[in-house]
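Sequence only, no structure available. Ideas?
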Amino acid sequence: MNRRYQVVSLFSGAGGMDSGFSLSNAFRTIMANDIISPPASTFVKNFGGKVVFVEDLDRLSLEEEPTYVLGDVSLIDFKKLPIQADVLIGGPPCQDFSIVRGIEEERRGIHVERGKLYAQFVRALAELQPSMFVFENVPGLKSANNGTAYHTIVNDFAHLESVLGFEGDSGKDSSDVNGYYLVFSGIVDSASFGAPQRRRRLIIIGVRNDLLKGTSVKREIRQRVNYKLSGGHLLFSRFPLTPLEVFEGRVLPELQAQYHEVMSEYSELVGLDTERAKKWKKLVWDRLSFDIVRDYMDANSISLTSPEEIEKAFEEHERLLRTLAYYGRRIEDLQFPDGSNNILKESKNVLQRLQMIPPGENHEFVQGTPWEVSGRGISLIYRRLHPLKPSYTVVAYGGGGTWGYHYKRNRGKLTNRERARLQTFPDDFQFHGNQYEMRAQIGEAVPTVLALAIADTVQEVLGLL
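Reply:
I predicted one. Tokens follow.
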């Protein structure tokens, strides 16, 4: 086997990105970091190693197992660590960049301290000087501060020598610091790589300038990376994996009976006398054939280019289900030692409300009825999964109605393990913490299949250097 590249992971959380890099078998994380304790415990439970408080870093020694540094990243002096990193990965907390926050004044980006955490990633890059880096964040980063935040960050990556001033007590002159050539900077959808969820992320990948030998090499690498991260070589971009498949552990043609049972439960909603219900009956219910493959194609607006295409797509689905060890493992039949598959209690009123909301719909479906609730214009409030369409984005935090809700009519909140499958965490990935801490760890993570695609791409580039 070829050498395993060494990874330093910042803003690591529970290790979603690290999970994908680990699954590739070409990388091992030698150091991770975050400031919150429960994700640190989750990380070492899955990747081994130990937790070290940032104040104790002077006694850190590089070992075979990873070290999780718990504490403020700004206190880490990377140049003093006994670490030789091949790749730096991470995504600084994104709340102030996210378009979810709404108006521009509410997402101030680099003008607030949380937004400035990206500068710690830049500092680590300058001091560690890995061969490559992977920076991930929310798509809203590209438009935050009218684009100023994004352009500032990518310029910093390219010109590290002029950013931090390495003269003086840093031990480095600016001439010792290489900037990075960006081989990819774009927004990718996790569903294009097999996540049963629409989750768009900004991914920026850089290669250290001194490792690139000319314009032709740069062009070749950029072309390869853009091809791999476009997802165009996979059928998932047109034939997405579905919540029904990852929950049942089978591909759609094997789930006809289950699909018919799920959808039949909502037949009585056809008679609801509200505008939203009438629209749903016309545009959704009346179009159902109750044939799972036909309804899947209709729900996802799929047109076949050849009769064999759908068969190849489901073969791709099955390969991924087997890779993730979901195949043949129905989630409702499983118990987990971390309690992540426990069904959380719902109030009687919430359950009655959800009984009136069909798959793919949200709280707006019951406006004008006794179950009406104020959703403040937020579409994810009491929104049910659709069994045949990728899930909406799994979120980490939020009050009533934001947890995520099952497509089965007799079910309310998703379990954390169901949410973990939407994020494509392997079932043997165990979480630490209470139900709300687990929710946060899962919702903040990069889906494993997207991280795996990125890791495979990084491995290919490293092989060319």
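The mean pLDDT is 89.
Hope that gets you unstuck.
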